[in-house]
Amino acid sequence: MHHDNGRLLPWPYSVQYGEEQRIETDVLILGGGIAGVWAAIAAARCGARVTIMEKAATIRSGAGGAGVDHWQWAADNPASGVSPEELTEALIDNQGGYRNGISTYIQCASAYETLEEMERMGGKVRDVGDEFKGAEFRDDASKLLFAYDYTNRIVIRVWGADYKPLLRKECRRLGVRILDRTTATGLLTEDGRHGARVVGAMGLNNRTGAFVVVKAKAVILATSRPQRIWTFSTELRGLATFRPPSDAGNGYAMAWRIGAQLTMMEKSMRSPFGSPYSFPAYGSGNAINTWYPCNIVDANGKEVPWVDSNGRVLGSVDERCRPAEGQKFFIMGGGSSSLPHPGHKRFLGPKPIPDLEQRMLRGEFTPPFYADLASMPEMERKVIWGLMVGNEGKTRIPVMHTYAQSGFDPERDMLQTYDFLRGSGMREPVVPQERTFGESGVCGGLLVDWDLMSSVPGLFGAGDLVFGGQDHSHAAATGRYAGARAALYAREQGWGEVDAAQVSSEKRRVYAPLSAQGPRTVDWKELNAGIARVMQNYCSEPKNEELLDLAQTWLADLERNEAPLAVADNPHKLMRTLDVLDILTCAQIIVQACKARRASSDYLHFKRLDHPDIDPAEWHKWITVRLGERNTEIGELPIAFWGELEPNYRPRHDANLAAMGAAAGEGQRRSWGIG
Amino acid sequence: MAMDDVPPGQAEAGPGDAAAAVVFATPNATTPGQPVVFDTAACTGCNICVYVCLEDVFIPNPIKGKPPVILYPEECWYCGPCVEDCPHEGAIRLNHPLQQRVRWKRKATGEHFRV
Ligand SMILES: Cc1cc2nc3c(=O)[nH]c(=O)nc-3n(C[C@H](O)[C@H](O)[C@H](O)COP(=O)(O)OP(=O)(O)OC[C@H]3O[C@@H](n4cnc5c(N)ncnc54)[C@H](O)[C@@H]3O)c2cc1C
Ligand code: SF4
Ligand code: SF4
Asked: Which CATH class is domain B1-115?
C-alpha cells in the first residue's frame, strides 16, 4: 500500500531537519496524555502560561485517550464507605509497602473532586437517564454507579470514552499552547550542569524533523512508562504493547540523563496483556476489571464457582460484590494475581476458583471456557456489555462495535475465554520471559516528594511515570496537583539560562541516525528485538549476579556497537529510533537496579537465586538509582519515607485550589465549583 | 494492476500468458498489514483519522479526496479513534489481525462464530 507499483511516495510533510523553533513558557508539560492535559488545565487555571509537548495528537493520545470505565479509588465520593487514609494504607499494604504513598493519597483524597471537574467540562459521570435505576451498584442519591465492592463504593463506573477530547477542548479554551507530533528528547538544565535546576526541554517534530527548544520555569514529565523491554514483535499484533507504543520510556531516560533519582526499577512482572499471543484487551471472555463479576462456564455449560478470600463458595452474583466475613472492604477481584502476597488476603476480592486449571486437568471441567453474559442478571449484563466495554480504554470500537458488526449478541452468545489455551492470559500470566515493566500493577519510576517534584529542582512528575502509582484517576488527580504545584513554583522563579552547548550536543544525538551508513546499519525494530532478547535471557524471572553481569555486558555491547549504527530515513522513523535508544537506556537502568537489590521479594516479583530469602526485613526499603557525574549512584529510602499523609497533603491541596480559583473570574470559579 | 480487470468468478490468466500481468520484484509485505479497511466510496479523504491516530499509522493520500495511505500498519495499537472520530459512517473500519479474531458460541444452538 505504501508504494504504488514499486514507486515510493514522497514524504508528505515538509522536511525541516535541524531547523530550530524557540518557545518560552512558564510551565512546560512533556506528554499530553491523561496526566499531561490535567496538569496543563490546572497550571493554566493558576494563571500560568502553559505549553504541552505531545508525541502523538493530544485529542486522543495516551493509554486513556480512547476511554476509561473505572474511576479508581475515589474514597472522597459521597457514597464511599472507606476514608482516603484507610484506602491508601490498604493499597500500600497490599503491595507490601511498595506503593507510592504520596501519589496514592492524592488519588484517594481527590479522585472524586477531580471527576466532578471532569463533569463540569462535559464528561458523563452519573446515570442521569436512570438507565440503571434499581441496580445494586447504583447510589440513588448521587446517581453514581460503582464497581467491585457494592457495599463500600470506592470505584466509580464512568462513561469515559470522550473524556480526552473534552480535556483537550478545555486546554484550548484556557489558552494552553499544544505542540502535537513533537517528541520530547531531552531536558535542559541551568548552565547545562548535571543535576542542576531544569530550565526547559528539547523536542523533535516527528512529522517535519524540526527541532524545538522550550525555555520554562517548571517542567512536568508525564510521558508514562517504558514498554518493549522484554518483548518485541511486529508480525503478530502491532507492536504487542498493552499501552500505546508511543509510551516508550522517554521520560525515564530523559530524567536519568540529567541525574534525577528513580526508584523500584528492579520490579518487573510476567505480561498478561502485552504478549503478542494475547487477544484484544477485554475482548475475550474473562471475569476481571471491565468484565467483573461475569459468569464463566465450561464447554458443557457448567458454571465455574466463585470463592471469597476465605475460600467460601459464593451462591449469587451479588455476593461477588460484597466483602467477605471479617473484611471491611475489598480492593480488587476476579483473580488476576497469582502471587501469594502475605498481606493480600485482607483486601482480596472474590474470584473464580483459583484451582480451576487443576480441576480441568482432572476432568471436572471441560475446555474451552466462555464468559456467559446471557446468564447474568440484566443490569449486570447491561453494565458490562454497554457502559464498561463501551468506555474502557480501547474497547468501544475494537470490541463492542467490531464484535457487534460480526453478529455477537450478549443476550444470546457466550464469548470464549482463552485461559489455559495460551491465549488471553486475562487470568494468569503467560511465559516468565515475556515480562513487562509496569504493564499492569504499580512499577518503578520517577522519585517525587509531596510537591510531586523530583530530586532535581524544577522537574515535576505525574501519572504512570511516577514511581509506585497507577490508574487513570491517579493520572488525572496527580496531573492536576502537579500542574498547580508547578505553576506555584514557577511564580517564584526567574528564567534560567539555556545552555548552547547542551542544545547542540542534543541536536547531534537526535539527528545522528540520519547519517548512519553502510551494510551494518540497524533498523529500530531489529535493535529493539536485540535488546529484548538480552533482557529475556539475562534479566528474566530467575536472576543472579552472573546473569545480571551478562545482561549489563551485552547491553553495553549493543550500546557501543549497534546503537551508533541505528538508521532512520524520515522523521517518523527517527522518532522510533530515538524511542529504542531510550528503551536501551531503560533496560540498562533496570539491570543496575536489579543488581542493587540483593534479596528476593514476592511483592516486587523479584527472584534472586543467589539471595533466595524472600522479603527479609533488612531489605524492606526502596532502592534508588541515579546517574551521578561519573557512575551510577545507588541509594535507599525507608519504606514509608513520605511521613504522614493528610498533614502533608491538605495544606498543599488547599493552596492548589485557592490558586486555581483565584486566577479565575468569579463566574468561572462558580462553574468549576472551587475556591 | 491488470488483475483488477478480471471480472469476479472468471478464470484468471494462466501463468504462461505473459501479457496478462506485469510481475514486480516485490519484498514481502509487513503483516498484519491492514489494521483498518477504508470504503473508498464513503471516505472523503478529510484526513481526520490521520490527525487523531495515536501512532501516525497513516499519511494523507497524495491524491486529494482519496483515503489515507496506511504507511506503518505494524505500529497500530488497535485502539479505534480513527474509526470513532471519522465523520462518515462506514468509511473506515477496524480490521483485527487474523490471529486476533475471538470466537463465540451461541447458547441456544451451539453454533460457533468469530469476529
Ligand atoms: C487498554 C487500557 C485500559 C485501561 N483502563 C483503565 C481504567 O478503566 N481505569 C484506570 O484507572 N486505568 C485504566 N488504564 C490505565 C490508564 O489509562 C493509565 O494509567 C493512564 O492513562 C496514565 O496516564 P499517563 O498520563 O501517565 O500516561 P498516558 O495517558 O499514556 O500519556 C502519556 C503521553 O505521553 C506521550 N508521550 C510519550 N513519550 C513522549 C515524549 N517523548 N514526548 C512527548 N510526549 C510523549 C504519549 O503519546 C501519551 O500521550 C487503562 C490502560 C489501558 C492501556
Ligand atoms: S476514513 Fe473517515 S476520517 Fe479518514 S479520511 Fe476517510 S472520511 Fe476522513
Ligand atoms: S486503531 Fe489507533 S493506532 Fe491504529 S490506526 Fe486507528 S487510531 Fe491509529
From this structure: alpha beta
